[in-house]
Amino acid sequence: MKKIIFSFVALMFATLSYAQIEGKWKTIDDETGQAKSIVEISKKADGKYYGKVVQLLIKPEHANCIDCKDDRKNKPILGMEVIRDMKKDGNEFTGGTITDPKTGKTYKCTITKDGDKLNVRGFIGFSFIGRSQTWYQVK
């Protein structure tokens, strides 16, 4: 009986952790293919997920987001919240936004997890009009 309970509990934790995006993720520059930054995603008290830049791996052209249009305008990229208001919807995270500090543009966002990778898609309007990136889990 103990083995059955242990197996059930282990299976529950594996299922719950499968689609979790909390943790640190390495972003890759689209143009150069180099690792660009580390973004830490966490769940806040409101039940939504947010991601902030906790480390820069390459020196950006500007240290601040000079082209941001909201409360992030002229704020340092390091420590900036680039993912906001993501909600878990099955195995996908949706409903939030992602901001590109290089351009200052904010996009709707969907995130799916595939093992130790995140598929991050930023888009305007419809999901097929956008850009995808793969982020890699930092262990």
UniProtKB/TrEMBL annotation:
Keywords: Signal. It comes from the Bacteria. It comes from Kaistella jeonii. This is Signal peptide protein. The lineage of its organism: Bacteria, Pseudomonadati, Bacteroidota, Flavobacteriia, Flavobacteriales. InterPro entries: DUF2147. The keyword Ribosomal protein does not apply. It holds the Pfam family DUF2147. Residues 1-19 form the signal peptide. Residues 23-135 form the DUF2147 domain.
